[in-house]
Amino acid sequence: MKKLLVVVDMQNDFVDGALGTTAAQAIVPAVAEKIAAATQTGTVVVFTRDTHRTDYLDTKEGRMLPVPHCIRDTEGWQIIPQLEEYAIGRKIFDKPTFGSLDLMIYAQQEQFDHIEIIGLCTDICVISNTMLLKAALPEAEIIVDSRCCAGVTPQSHANALAAMKMCHIQITES
Description:
alpha/beta
């Protein structure tokens, strides 16, 4: 069985920077533990990184969410210090929008049987990447560990988990 762990947007700006939340800060230990366990079992671990240009506020997303964040090569764009060691030497998919087509293509080419998704934000980038992966690999077992995810709000987090569950994504708290 080919296993993949996708760590979505665990970046400074989403944890304790421009768009940081206490919920995002709270999942950091569980995320680090999940990555460490995956590396011990030979699971392939990849990261996504929300990536914007300096003209972010002039983009459609920037007009909808006028908070500059994850600007390429800034401190806020970097993977959080607690996870840096796990990102070294691994694939990082820089994505200019919520979901990564490059991640979807990679997972499809590699034909992973088991994909687990964790990270931020459940209700935006986690759900977007999960649904892309489900579309690319409809027979793969796809899991979202809710203990290792946080949304913009507790309600939007719960709504995203419920929506993914309706699309046959397994939601766990492991």
